[in-house]
Amino acid sequence: MGMLNGAAVLPPLRRYREIAAVLIRHGLGDIASMLGIARFRALARARPNLPASRNVRIRLALEELGPTFIKFGQALSVRGDLLPPDLVAELSKLQDDVPPLPAAVAEREIETALGAPVSDLFAAFDPAPVAAASIAQVHEAVLPDGRLVAVKVRRPDIAGTIEDDLAALAHLARAAERHLRDAALYSPVALVAQFARTIRRELDLAREGRMLERFAANFAGHEEIVFPRVEWALTRPTVLTMEYIDGAKLDEPDTWPAGTDPAVVARHGADVLLQQILVDGLFHADPHPGNIFVLPGNVIALLDFGIVGRLDESMRERLADLVVALGRRDAERAATVLVTIAEAPSGVRMPDLEADIADLVDAYAGVSLREVRIGEVVGRILDLISTHRLKLPPDLMLLIKALVTIEGVGRRLDPEFRLIEHAAPFAARVGQERYSAPALAARAAHAGRGAAAALASLPHEVIGLASQLRGGQLSVNVLHRDADRVTRDLDRVSSRITSAILVAGLVVGGALIAQRVTGGLSWILPWIAAACFVVATGVGVATLVSLLWRSR
């Protein structure tokens, strides 16, 4: 049973059967068996002439299962810290190609969302989409005032389909954790939960519009990049209307405006991404060439903000510390920082991790920055992380994918392009700003606000404590880390006190008896008194010997 939004959800039986049938048709019946769905084996038989590669068959099965599974595979394709490199490489080939919606269906979705006929909303609307994907497609349109806009419309019923598939994925993830070895390392349930949050955000086109505006605000005054303006009056969670960017795709240089310099375009793209990562902490997580347009004057436009990554100030500082430690060839410091960035298992061996980092550093000793490829370095770091069973945060894996993508695109545009050279000024800027007066003042102010909040809440806490005390509701639980020893000591003390009382009683009793040597029993009383004195002496001597022995 899967857990989505805190509630238990069972996948629809029909969809579960389809998943089983697809797995079996692609020769993945063993996965179906491990996941507890082998009872559906009669629904399908393996196809003849299947590809020999298991990884290829996994990719083909995901593509046949549809948009949700394709996107899940694409999300896994950046988890080089968890999955084998050959499987990661195959998953990166997943294609999100789907036929476009019929024009009538797209127009009906727009009219339902905006509450008016398309003919009233736009002066012109092109029924043929300029781009189509599994979640939404984009149409060109003209506003009544003559401005050209792009209308992104979500596919009908896609939200319901995705929720059904997420329930199935959650169910499969729980089955995988029960049956697969090393499931704790891969955390299938956590992976599916993270993916569910990401794809639900992507479904909300109004949220994408808000993200777009945040990026535009971060780059206000930068002339090397432009962002489309959002038309909020024509935007809803299922429809996003924005300024139409008339540019050429980055991967189609033959269509670029005259006078465009590929080297300058590559540099602009790198600078934009590095500022997002190292300065703003909010970055476009899918900067593939289809989402980057080239405009006259070597200006670039960034599109499609459905998936974004975040890095808080603490993470950016730790990443900077790691880079500095690697640059100084300080393997011990690098290992320490790395385990604060990644989730480390309890049994991680720091000396082994430090030795592997030292080997990594030594491999690039004496190598100039111009000869260093980020993709190669990242690959070696991911191998190291996988060996020591560390797990990186999902946003950090998105960051790695973005960096590798931009470096690859930049090298295709300009063979002399080196992303690491562009990163150096940004890293220096982060280091300077970290200890600048405004930054230190901001940290002091943050600490002051925390202290003020604590002081403000103190009277309320004291009043509550006093109220519990008056009402007899206050209880104190004391945890002693060596309670057994204390108990034994108390037992010994109580035994000695008992012995002392017994000795005193015998001595006093004997003395009183000795004074009453009259009457018919006078002959026996001296003997009783003597017995009391003898017993008292014996107990006293034994207690004294015990004390002297313990003191040694």
How would you describe this structure to a colleague?
This protein is of the alpha+beta class. Helices cover 59% and strands 9% of the residues. The chain is built from 21 helices and 13 strands. The protein has helices spanning 13-25, 29-34, 54-65, 67-76, 85-91, 103-114, 118-121, 158-179, 183-186, 188-203, 205-218, 262-280, 313-327, 331-341, 350-363, 374-387, 394-413, 419-434, 437-470, 483-515, 525-551, and strands at residues 2-4, 7-9, 124-125, 131-132, 136-142, 148-154, 225-226, 239-243, 248-249, 282-284, 292-295, 299-302, 308-310. Strands 3, 4, 5, 6 and 8 form a 5-stranded antiparallel beta sheet that branches. The chain has a 4-stranded mixed beta sheet with strand order 7-12-11-9, with helices on one face. A two-stranded antiparallel ribbon has the order 1-2. Helix 1 (13-25) packs antiparallel against helix 3 (54-65), helix 8 runs antiparallel to helix 10 and helix 12 runs parallel beside helix 18 (419-434). The two termini are 64 Å apart. 28% of the residues are buried.
